[in-house]
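Q: Given only this backbone (481 positions), what sequence would you predict?
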């Protein structure tokens, strides 16, 4: 390896760190676990609020003004086509987060930085693949979802733009997970605020035409989202390169390292398969809903987006659990690892169940905010009823499987997810088609499958075998001299 850059060595300064720096640099292998959970999860929750709930609801509201066909095209694209690549990126990010967390917990900063650089290289490869598919086959990809001819016509430009200009989305996603694994959740929060505000403002200007620009409709929605992603990319890139986060990337960290890349892939492909399994279930049921008519597909699409609000808010808590589990296992403290898991579960479950109750009570007003079609509202009401019940199981499942990934035990979660996806597909098809329950059968199978997979993972967590999976970190402990 080459000599470290001069910028790698910081001169000591007698400056009292600010409150953001103290939060960012907290040692999560010591002290109160609830305080660590609070320090990690509050910025993550705020990140999810801005980057998920506020943006998703604002985006949906803007697009709803373009009509049902445009709204369906955007939702179907984001929940299926684009989600396929998001699942792959999430797999890489989950593996990277666990590896970075264990490196930080063991005091191996150079290994954490090295892993981060290699993860970003892999993200670039995935970004290129996504751009090629979206650039050459947008119509074929959207048509595979059995959307109506009207949705296909308005949706192709949206698919093409978001897939070709995807790098900002992938880069921000990966760097956020890397920083979270290192214990820095404040930087992703500040980036999410910028991304959400820029995206919504740009979408409004480009969709309806303002500031001297012509109205671009659904294409404007895609370009507006890209504007926010690119603004966030510039901010986070500048921050990381200047060493103002828990991860300090230098040019040497971007040189391809086959050994580290193999380790990342080994930790990343099982979570990716796990996420893709759930994604394929969504695609299958979107197609199946299309066979029941346009109204069920529209109701299912809106219900999917509304049903993501609670997981978007609560899932960051599960991410904080992964960081705490990974860092404390890296430090060799298994007793504290157990305490970290159950502290996280208690908070995550309380929040998720509270939101499930809110969705159950106010499901019709939520739907009425985005559509005035009585048939869509009626079917969406039934879907959200079942989803609110499903959230009770997910309240425990999310922190459990994220803890497994933080510990490096990625195979069990993948295996159970694949088995559960097959069960969900079989049961949903049987109820919806064979027993002629229609959309109701799909809703029922989702509830049953979530309860089943949560029970299985809970039993495995109780055995404690997952704590034996944490391995050593690849890469040097310090820059080569």
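A: Predicted residues:
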């Amino acid at each position: 390896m080459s000599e470290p850059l001069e910028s790698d060595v910081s001169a000591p300064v007698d400056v009292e760190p600010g409150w953001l720096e103290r939060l960012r640099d907290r040692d999560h292998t010591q002290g109160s676990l609830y305080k660590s959970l609070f320090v990690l999860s509050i910025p993550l929750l705020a990140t999810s609020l801005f980057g998920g709930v506020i943006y998703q609801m604002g985006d949906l509201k803007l697009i709803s003004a373009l009509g049902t066909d445009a709204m369906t095209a955007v939702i179907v694209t984001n929940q299926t086509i684009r989600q396929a690549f998001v699942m792959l990126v999430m797999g890489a990010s989950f593996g990277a987060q666990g590896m970075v967390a264990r490196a930080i917990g063991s005091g191996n900063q150079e290994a954490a930085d090295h892993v981060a650089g290699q993860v970003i290289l892999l993200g670039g490869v995935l970004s290129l693949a996504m751009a090629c598919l979206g650039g050459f086959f947008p119509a074929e990809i959207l048509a595979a979802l059995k959307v109506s001819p009207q949705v296909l016509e308005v949706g192709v430009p949206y698919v093409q733009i978001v897939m070709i200009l995807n790098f900002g989305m992938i880069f921000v996603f990966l760097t956020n997970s890397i920083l979270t694994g290192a214990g820095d959740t404040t930087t992703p929060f500040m980036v999410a605020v910028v991304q959400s505000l820029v995206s919504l403002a740009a979408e409004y200007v480009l969709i309806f035409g303002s500031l001297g620009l012509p109205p671009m409709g659904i294409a404007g929605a895609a370009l507006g989202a890209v504007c926010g992603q690119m603004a966030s990319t510039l901010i986070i890139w500048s921050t990381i390169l200047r060493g103002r986060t828990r991860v300090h990337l230098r040019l040497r960290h971007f040189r391809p390292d086959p050994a580290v890349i193999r380790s990342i892939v080994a930790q990343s492909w099982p979570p990716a398969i796990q996420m893709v399994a759930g994604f394929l279930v969504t695609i299958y049921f979107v197609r199946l809903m299309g066979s029941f008519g346009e109204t069920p597909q529209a109701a299912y699409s809106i219900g999917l987006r509304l049903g993501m609000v609670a997981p978007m808010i609560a899932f960051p808590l599960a991410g904080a659990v992964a960081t705490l589990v990974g860092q404390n296992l890296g430090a060799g403290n298994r007793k504290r690892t157990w305490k970290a898991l159950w502290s996280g579960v208690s908070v995550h479950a309380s929040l998720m169940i509270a939101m499930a109750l809110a969705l159950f009570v106010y499901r019709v007003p939520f739907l009425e905010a985005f559509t005035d079609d009585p048939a869509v509202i009626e079917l969406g009401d039934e879907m959200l009823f079942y989803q609110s019940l499903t959230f009770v199981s997910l309240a425990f499942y999310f922190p459990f499987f994220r803890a497994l990934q933080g510990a490096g035990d990625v195979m069990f979660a993948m295996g159970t997810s694949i088995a559960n996806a097959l069960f969900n597909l079989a049961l949903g098809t049987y109820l919806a088609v064979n027993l002629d329950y229609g959309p109701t059968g799909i809703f029922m199978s989702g509830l049953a499958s979530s309860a089943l997979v949560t029970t299985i993972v809970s039993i495995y967590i109780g055995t404690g075998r997952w704590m034996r999976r944490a391995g050593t970190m690849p890469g040097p402990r310090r820059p080569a001299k």
